[in-house]
């Protein structure tokens, strides 16, 4: 029994060491394949370049609205995998609802320079917001932040310093350590993680109308994590549960439950 315990402890130490040294490779899974021109994936879309405060140039797509223009923009912060091309269905569906949409890739994604981290992604989001307001003309009161998975941490932090008109959190978690315990229950993540994304703590004192969306069959972010974010939100507008949906199911990207939830928030903040 003693030998088994020693082996178990040794394995945990080794696993903890690997997680400490390579943790960002577990957290961030960038797709660095070439991204096609925006107009090849979405009719009428155009390419933009974002410039971060630490000197990086990042690729982005601007998608204009279709049909009745709400004169509202949605800034989309992706999850931890893929690149902006894989969010084309989300942008197209939101544009069909009359929103203008800004898609962008974080540093290290979509052939962008740099390496992802919590602080790096925060800088990237600030560059996206600055472009949306300065170059594209969307004031904060005409802007919704939409975060997906780890992007919920990105837009929540952005909202603390630069409040938008509305906030949509799709599959959020209370903080990264809590979400990680679902996958690494024997690792003291509170002690080893460099990146935190304290979403529940940040939304608690927020006055921005907030919609929380999650699938009740999510195997990546436990539904209870998202539910606790909704409970913590200082200005919860709506909690939307997509029955039977897992984290990366297509309906969580451009499904009617997700898109209509954004539309309802848009109606609330900018009624006709």
UniProtKB/TrEMBL annotation:
A GO molecular-function annotation: hydrolase activity
Residues covered by the Serine aminopeptidase S33 domain: 73-178
Protein origin, superkingdom: Bacteria
Coiled-coil parts of chain: none
Name of a matching Pfam family: Hydrolase_4
Keywords: Hydrolase
Name under which the protein is recorded: Alpha/beta fold hydrolase
Organism: Halostreptopolyspora alba
